Design the sequence.
């Protein structure tokens, strides 16, 4: 359904070119969920915006392909993207979207617009469909007439999720969809996503720095570091057999209830993406760094079927 090949999305700033997504390749089948993990600034949101064909200026897609059902989103005009892709094939739950609901419109008014504009529905038809969608996300009809300030954080996030489903997209991208919520509401929202995954059989991309969220829902995981995917595999492969030192570091930083293993963290901070370190971008922070790591970029190697790792420790085995 989705094939991303050698995608490069850069921000052309006065200080230089920020290589926020640099040669990223992965694929996603129908009904599959991909989790994208990585520290802040690793390029996760930029990847998501690229898939929507909307990269905020001064950013733009500088190379590669985004094949959605065989058509290249990266090469489409703004008009084509609006007509064929955005919200219809790919929808996105933006980071903090629940706080960006328009305060002066009722939930019905905000939700009805796409039906009336894109699907030529009457107001009444739109209302019927919205009531169905509200039910899907666990809210009743009374929410139609409410304003955003009358809703709790969890209810607002349910509205935002319903809005992402409005036009029956094939792919929903959720960028940090639970970050601003307390843990109980986080769990409820994750249950809602699991229900949607089961009932709708749509593909989803979950972007988060929180690996425990990904463990709950993802079939596949891509670990990003400094604009690159450094490890890609099924959830089992990544969580049970992580091969890249960065993935191993991320996993060691998650507290586990029944483990005596000490929690540790990765020393240092991610690099500046205008002048990233040569060779392996992780080398200044890697406990296993070798001379070759400072010089040559590690190739992506398939270590077992479907499990890819970019690290010289692997390619030199
Ligand atoms: P977070 O988890 O904090 O949202 P992220 O992994 O989603 O981070 P991005 O927001 O995609 O990362 O940012 C990737 C890189 O691109 C960062 O170095 C960031 O500073 C840079 N960047 C993002 N937006 C812009 C912009 N509008 N102009 C210039 N640089 C930008
Ligand atoms: Fe560490 Fe070298 Fe592997 Fe990079 S390539 S993760 S520096 S061992």
Sequence:
């Amino acid at each position: 359904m989705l094939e991303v090949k050698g995608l490069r999305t850069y921000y052309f700033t006065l200080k230089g070119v920020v290589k926020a997504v640099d040669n990223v390749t992965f694929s996603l089948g129908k009904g599959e969920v991909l989790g994208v993990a990585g520290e802040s600034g690793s390029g996760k949101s930029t990847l998501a915006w690229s898939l929507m064909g909307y990269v905020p200026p001064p950013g733009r897609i500088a190379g590669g392909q985004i094949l959605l059902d065989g058509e290249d989103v990266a090469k489409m005009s703004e008009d084509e993207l609006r007509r064929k892709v955005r919200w219809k094939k790919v929808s996105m739950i933006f980071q903090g979207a629940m706080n960006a609901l328009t305060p002066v419109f009722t939930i019905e008014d905000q939700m009805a617009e796409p039906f009336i504009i894109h699907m030529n529905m009457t107001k009444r038809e739109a209302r019927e469909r919205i009531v169905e969608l509200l039910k899907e996300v666990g809210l009743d009809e009374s929410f139609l007439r409410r304003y955003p300030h009358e809703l709790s954080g969890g209810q607002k996030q349910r509205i935002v999720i319903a809005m992402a489903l409005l036009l029956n997209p094939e792919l929903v991208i959720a960028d940090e969809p639970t970050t601003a919520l307390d843990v109980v509401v986080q769990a409820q929202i994750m249950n809602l996503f699991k229900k949607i995954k089961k009932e709708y059989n749509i593909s989803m991309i979950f972007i988060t720095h929180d690996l425990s969220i990904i463990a709950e829902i993802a079939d596949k995981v891509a670990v990003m570091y400094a604009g690159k995917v450094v490890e890609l595999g099924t959830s089992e492969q990544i969580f049970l057999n992580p091969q890249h030192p960065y993935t191993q570091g991320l996993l060691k930083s998650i507290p586990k209830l029944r483990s005596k293993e000490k929690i540790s963290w990765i020393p240092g901070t991610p690099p500046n993406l205008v002048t990233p370190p040569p060779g392996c971008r992780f080398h200044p922070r890697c406990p296993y760094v070798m001379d070759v790591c400072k010089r040559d970029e590690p190739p992506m190697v398939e270590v077992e079927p479907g499990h890819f790792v970019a690290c010289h420790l692997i390619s030199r085995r």
